[in-house]
Specification:
The complex is a heterodimer of chains A (about 250) and B (about 625). Helix content of chain A is about 35%, strand content about 15%. With about 250 residues, chain A is an alpha+beta fold. Chain A folds into two domains: about 100 residues, Roll (Ubiquitin-like (UB roll)), CATH 3.10.20; about 130 residues, Orthogonal Bundle (Fumarate Reductase Iron-sulfur Protein, Chain B, domain 2). In chain A, helix 3 runs antiparallel to helix 6. By secondary structure, chain B is an alpha/beta fold. Chain B has a domain of about 110 residues: Flavocytochrome C3, Chain A, domain 1, CATH 3.90.700.10. Chain B contains 16 helices and 24 strands. In chain B, strand 9 and strand 10 form a beta hairpin. The termini of chain B are far apart. Classes of the chains: A alpha+beta (about 250), B alpha/beta (about 625). Chain A: Its EC number is 1.3.5.1. Chain A: GO terms for molecular function: 2 iron, 2 sulfur cluster binding; 3 iron, 4 sulfur cluster binding; 4 iron, 4 sulfur cluster binding; electron transfer activity; metal ion binding; succinate dehydrogenase (quinone) activity. Chain A: Part of an enzyme complex containing three subunits: a flavoprotein (frdA), an iron-sulfur protein (frdB), and diheme cytochrome b (frdC).
């Protein structure tokens, strides 16, 4: 028996002087294998063409369609309606600037983050087109990719207590990115240089350990482990700065 | 009107756009990339499989060279490729892959010793040499003589795009995301940038540039069922076509991928078959060896897609509410392999189908996948028709893919051609200057402003943009699918000509204020219908079967009459059909036309076979 689903959707167009933030309800008949991608596109095409939301790959790979579904940040594309109740609430991700309705601007936030943590391989070497590639252990390559899998959907940031309270907090996604470079032998930054980037309240010491980031991560990244080890590593780095060299300790990620 | 000025304007910030951007930035030029979405959401990120380059490090890739890669590419193209470009590509690919490794891509590496591989569902072993330990490894892909596809698990596109975007950030490349170029600024001879709509505020601005690059990916989304991201809607092709000068090469060359999942058309990688997955029918019988004894599931994509359709037409497909499909079986690869090397596949199956591929079969059918056609360029990536306009990646018809491209060659093309075209863009920027004609800019700007006003006020009519789009979907699916024939194509062309009139009468139902997405759809619908007409009309005229273009009424590949490339232009904005002309498929012959070695089919030979020209020489 097909259900009639109800969606209460946040509406606000900041570019329209007439618009005020409010909730609007839509109903739609459920079909087989329905996802929120299908729901929202049908709503816009059949009921309200002004509805704003983002999809790109619609396959859980690009992270464009993150939104708050019934109070929990997640990807709309792989939210199946059969797993939802009859009445649902859709809200835009908090923290990021609102573009309109369910659409937010994650691009600006992430771009600023790359600049802050200098999200690229730091090396003094110069690429030699005539030489064979530098060798790398396959297990190391796989462990880097393991952390490189983040799709920057912003769910972890939206679910983060610290990020909601302070604008300058880097969030799990940035800390995970730093960990990826720490693991990478091609990045020649020292522990001290990493400490300068994340050894603060804006970085690893701002994390309250609520761990919602990992709970909502649609790619199941091991954020809890990454943050734990990073915190330990940076704590030792802080102490190491004060200790004579024979007493220094290092934490492997 | 806000005006931005830059040396190079890249429309599109996927792998091709950013690779060109980095080359220019590295040489001291200012670069701005426009992107519909944050750069890292580009469709490049969805590519799972890998990038072909003849590194020859792995046991199954031993003895591989750019020559073998070149031959595979030309054969795969069904001799539709420009062999000069295929040669540049094959020779440059190994350098480009090593450079990506240097910049930080975590390529999978050679692990020495005995390794178990699967082919056609059966395990066999290969011995990886200890001296190759730690070099870039490769996997198998369809249509190739050697294993040469470099990969990062099954997130190659993602890993490479993130690394490249890191590099772009490091080089100071500006990325203006959530922006859309809606018209090129030109005077009929020179391109001077683009008129751009901000997708955060709806504001229009002008971007003036000495060189402009179209790197907006394919036009798959003029089809209803496509593996493409929803942003691959032909935006770059439309603004090129609208100039009346730029040319779309081989629009009819559209590839279908054998394994789109049913019903959502999300792609599962060819790596599934490369790693030993098999295709089964309703009786769970493996049918591909019956059709293609040699290559079976690893014949090239057009062949596998056709064989699957042929088999389903015999009534051996699996019935479903979404139409017939077949099964992809990867169960025998085992949980460890699936959960590491094919993890994205596992996630897609679980998230969108509720299927666990370790124990269950995956429902698949051929789905629109890749546009071999696009903005026609010369081997430098310079567009025909307008000076200062370039194109790279899937958006262009460079043309190394001809009428069918091999798996792993498109993702590689983005960075390999991007590196080459980037160098040529740099030469162009070093060697020429552009006078920005502000009257051209103002005229282009006000024309777009007027269009937007007309759409908002319904000045031309009140046609519903989504209804028009659905009509276009129906029309193109009817004629320009996997199997084509004159009758259906003529019907598609006739219908699309009517739909074009409707597209010209679209009016908004919403107020169009701000980042209004109905307006974005309305601004491009006329151009999309024109692109659909280019595809169907060119397919109607091409009375032969070559690569992915299969005419049931003309089953032979006809080298006598059709060893050429279609060139489509829209001479006047008000025309109802594109103007088609033709040019030779290749200016250089390293390999004269021959059989592909799979897919069967007869060939009508050329009257006078070409003399093979030596490497690098012009014919």
């Amino acid at each position: 028996m097909a259900r009639m689903l109800k969606f209460n959707i946040f509406r606000y167009n900041p570019q329209d002087p007439q618009s005020v933030p409010h909730m609007q309800s839509f109903t739609i008949d459920e079909t087989e294998s329905m996802t929120l991608f299908i729901v929202l596109n049908r709503l816009r095409e059949e009921q309200d063409p002004s509805l704003q939301f983002d999809f790109c790959c619609r396959a859980g790979i690009c992270g464009a369609c993150a939104m708050v579904v019934n109070g929990r940040p997640g990807l709309a594309c792989h939210t199946k309606t059969k797993e939802l109740p009859e009445e649902n609430t859709l809200m835009p991700l908090p923290v990021f600037k609102l573009v309109g309705d369910l659409s937010v601007d994650t691009g600006t936030w992430f771009r600023a983050m790359y600049k802050k943590i200098e999200s690229w391989c730091h090396t003094k070497k110069v690429f030699d087109p005539s030489a064979p590639e530098e060798r790398m252990d396959n297990a190391v390559a796989e462990s880097i990719y393991e952390l490189d899998r983040c799709i920057e959907c912003g769910c972890c940031v939206a679910a983060c207590g610290t990020a909601l309270m302070r604008e300058d907090f880097l969030g799990a996604t940035a800390l995970n990115r730093v960990a990826r470079f720490i693991l990478d032998p091609r990045d020649e930054r020292t522990e001290k240089e990493y400490f300068d980037i994340i050894g603060t309240d804006e970085g690893i010491f701002g994390c309250m350990g609520l761990l919602a980031c990992q709970d909502v991560c649609p790619k199941y990244l091991p954020l809890q482990d990454v943050l734990g080890k990073l915190r330990q590593k940076m704590a030792f780095a802080a102490v190491n700065n004060l200790l004579p060299s024979f007493m220094k300790r290092e934490v492997k990620l | 009107m806000q005006i931005f000025q830059t040396d190079l304007l890249c429309i599109g910030a996927g792998l091709a756009g950013e690779r060109v951007a980095i080359e220019a930035a590295d040489n001291g030029f200012s670069v701005t990339c426009l992107s519909l979405v944050p750069a890292r959401r580009s469709h490049s990120s969805a590519a799972q499989g890998g990038m072909q380059a003849a590194l020859g490090n792995s046991a199954m890739g031993e003895g591989d060279t750019p020559d073998v890669h070149f031959a595979d590419t030309v054969k795969g193209s069904d001799w539709g490729a420009d062999q000069e470009c295929a040669r540049i590509f094959a020779d440059t690919a190994p350098i480009a892959m090593r450079q990506m490794a240097f910049w930080g891509v975590p390529w999978n590496r050679v692990v020495p010793g005995e390794q178990t591989y699967y082919k056609g569902g059966k395990p066999f072993t290969a011995f990886e040499k200890p001296e190759n330990e730690g070099l870039i490894h490769s996997r198998s892909f369809g249509g190739t003589a050697k294993w040469r596809t470099c990969y990062t698990s099954d997130g190659t596109g993602h890993a490479v795009l993130y690394t490249l975007d890191n590099r772009a950030a490091q080089m100071g490349v500006e990325v203006h995301d959530k922006t859309e170029a809606i018209a090129l600024i030109h005077d009929g001879e020179t391109c001077m940038g683009a008129i751009v709509r901000c997708l955060k505020t709806g504001e229009l601005s002008a971007y003036l540039a000495r060189a402009t690059l179209i790197a907006t990916g394919g036009y798959g989304r003029i089809y209803r069922e496509s593996t493409n991201a929803v942003i691959c809607d032909g935006g770059g092709h439309i603004i090129a076509l609208d100039t009346g000068k730029a040319v779309i090469g081989n629009p009819e060359a559209v590839q279908f991928h054998p394994t789109g999942i049913v019903p959502t058309d999300i792609l599962v990688t060819e790596g599934c078959r490369g790693d030993g997955g098999t295709l089964l029918d309703v009786n769970q019988y493996r049918f591909m060896p019956d059709y293609e004894p040699e290559k079976a599931e690893l014949a090239s994509r057009d062949v596998v897609s056709r064989r699957m359709t042929e088999h389903m037409r015999k009534g051996l497909g699996v019935k479903s509410p979404y139409g017939d499909h077949l099964w992809l079986d990867i169960r025998h690869l085992g949980e460890k392999h699936i959960s590491t090397k094919l993890r994205e596949v596992q996630e897609i199956c679980e998230s969108f189908l509720g299927v666990d591929p370790v124990h269950q079969l995956i429902p698949v059918r051929p789905t629109q996948h890749y546009s071999m056609g696009g903005v026609r360029t010369n081997s430098d990536g310079a567009a025909y028709g307008l000076k200062g306009l370039f194109s790279a990646g899937e958006a262009c018809c460079w043309d190394m893919h001809g009428f069918n491209r091999l798996g792993g060659n498109s993702l590689a093309e983005t960075i390999v051609a991007g590196m080459h075209v980037g160098g040529k863009v740099v030469e162009f920027l070093q060697g020429s200057d552009t006078a920005f004609k502000t009257d051209c800019m103002r005229e282009a700007f006000s024309r777009q402003q007027d269009r937007i006003k007309a759409l908002i006020h319904g000045a031309n009519g009140r046609e519903n943009v989504y209804a028009v789009r659905n009509a276009m979907f129906d029309a193109i699916m009817k004629g320009a699918g996997i199997f084509r024939n004159g009758k259906d194509l003529q019907e598609s062309v006739d219908k699309l000509t009517d739909i074009l009139q409707r597209a010209r009468k679209v009016g908004l139902r919403s107020n169009g204020l701000g980042a209004n997405q109905e307006l974005a759809a309305a601004l491009k619908i006329e151009g999309q219908v024109k692109m659909a007409l280019c595809v169907c009309y060119a397919a109607l005229k091409r009375t032969e079967s070559r690569g992915a273009h299969t005419r049931e009424d003309f089953p032979e590949r006809n080298d006598r009459d059709w060893l050429n490339r279609t060139l489509a232009t829209w001479a006047n904005l008000s025309d109802d059909l594109p103007t088609l002309t033709y040019e030779p498929a290749t200016s250089v012959f390293e390999i004269p036309p021959g059989e592909r070695g799979y897919g069967g089919g007869k060939i009508i030979p050329m009257d006078t076979p070409p003399v093979a020209t030596p490497k690098g020489a012009k014919a």
